[in-house]
User: Fold Alginate export domain-containing protein from Aerophobetes bacterium.
Amino acid sequence: MRILLFALAFIISITLTLSNFSRADVRGYVKTTGYYFTDKGELIYGNKKMIGIELGMKFSFPFYDLGKGSSSFKFYANNLTGTPDNKLSLNEGYLDIYTSEVDLRLGKQYIFWGRADGTDTPTNNINPRDLTRIKPDPEEERIAVDALKANWYVNDSLVIQGVWIPEFTPSKLPEIPLPSFIILGKPITPSSELKNSSWGLKIDKFTRGVDFSFDYLYGWDSFPDYKINLPYFVPTYNRIKIYGADFSTGIKGFDVRGEAAYFQTRDKKGDSLSIKNPYLQYVFEMGYPVTDNLNIIGQLIGKNIYHFKSPSDYPPSEQAIAKELSVFYGEQKKSQYSLLTHITYSTWYDKLKLEFIGIYNLTMHDYFLSPKISYELGKGLNLGFGAMVFEGKSDTQFGMMDNQDFVWLETKYSF
Assistant:
């Protein structure tokens, strides 16, 4: 039933796009991106030099007097996964219906929760991620999902949002080098049944001094646990409950934001070797507009593992497995702390933009750097250049990508 419902929304969206084409707002872009990997060693993405071409189109159109519809498509031709890859995909396709108190959106869409800078924040967990294609903009890693979203505007200062996601979509992971004793098995994913749906609730409150929200998501972990049946590690997707909260305020010229989320995994007591332990993630952020052109953001990021066990706490026969899983799950230490800085600067009437993102893990001592520069050559035409640098030991998040450093060059024309 739900498949038919979303298929109907898609068909209506496409039909209205064609029938209302003369009234549609049509936008799009064409971009070409080249990558060059600077390190030696085995590459996750296959080629030392890669290039990709992408065409994106978005159509927005009126839906009688009830709201609007929107469809966006992407076509890309590239070798970003190591082999030639040509694909036309529906990026988004949904219908919006507006009433005096409630707005509805039905279809394939992005749903972002949280107030902190960036998309990889503790409470932003509805859309999975595509990590199989390297992209200069981390926001492009997110994957749209089929969903029904409802916003109830209780009053001017209170909004309640409900979300229903009928089917599970996992994150896409690259094939990373594994120890010789590990073979990845066929993933086990939840079946397309009503009982396997996901849903969430978010309450937003807006006040004169502080904006804040509370949220709850009953869903599936988009990153797998690994069922052990040596030599096989079988990716298995389990239920997860996420309790979150966020806030934003201003203090003496500083923008202050924070998020926290508790992830209640299937292994509530931490007894299982193969399932992630429950954990708490949080971020505290301060941003300051130094000038109209220069903005600096700093974040303290934390993660606490409940019922933590180090690999040495397991029997000798399980310690090698426990060590590998601790890296996959980010459970190397009971508590981890990281610092992030995000600096943006624009000049020449906003034609030239400089940006820098850096993350340093204070606990594991690995880090990530991403400088980039973009210049507007003409109306709608931009040239971008940047790099991504990963550094750390092999048993750390960024250290796993240590030989994947690259530079990129991109041209993009928007219309």
